[in-house]
Amino acid sequence: MDIFKVSASALEAQRIRMNTIASNMANAQTTKTDAGGPYVRKDVVFSPMQVTSNPAEKFEGVKVREVVEDNKPPITIYDPGHPDADENGNVSMPNINVIEEMVNMMMALRAYEANVRSFNMSKGMYQKALELGRQ
Amino acid sequence: MDKGFKILERMVQAADIRQKVIASNIANSDTPGFKAKDVKFNNLFGKEMKLSATNPKHIGAGKAGAISSRTEVEDNLSWEDRNNVELNVEVAKMTENALLHDTAVTILSSKIKMFKNAIRTK
Question: For residue A86, which of A41, A74, B48, B53 sits 20 to 30 Å off, Cα-Cα?
Fold first, then answer.
């Protein structure tokens, strides 16, 4: 039943990725964070995860190894009326491209769907095999 | 009993092994550095198809239930994150594999039904 662990781990990983993207989009205009400065874009890094104790079996699940911060510099816009504007009237805005986030979200969605399909297909196979010998 | 059983059993077993590897490829379609793998089976049917060997020293005698396979890395082009999983190809492979598995199970089912009928006939 290790195969279900593979698909489930991928669903979990893609869900975390989706949350990260949602957080980026929600904070696209956030200029002040607890750490100071504008919100910094986050991204997830996946790595393979061992799901079976048998080393002869060559299949792996996936896990989120870490959530990294994007080191792109913030975008500076001129808006003297903004509460976070400096003495020259410039405001540092998060370097988040909403279109880029949408593309990432669609990729995460596709990957999630593919893993749901994979899960259902494996389930179908086992169910079929369980019917063996029944009339 | 019937050699068909052994062959079909191997087919089901092979589909099970391959299913896991394909599921792993799909799960890791966004993992940097991950390479897509596939399983190749050697003489899945060969030994049962040959002359039956009644002594293990006979040439061509296969070990019961043992299937030999090797996992190969696919030579697709890699993306800039060194990942070479082609999601659509993997989903297609999985569909094909599930079909193969279901075919084997269906034939097995009808074989079992045949034997049952033969036993029950009065």
Answer: A41
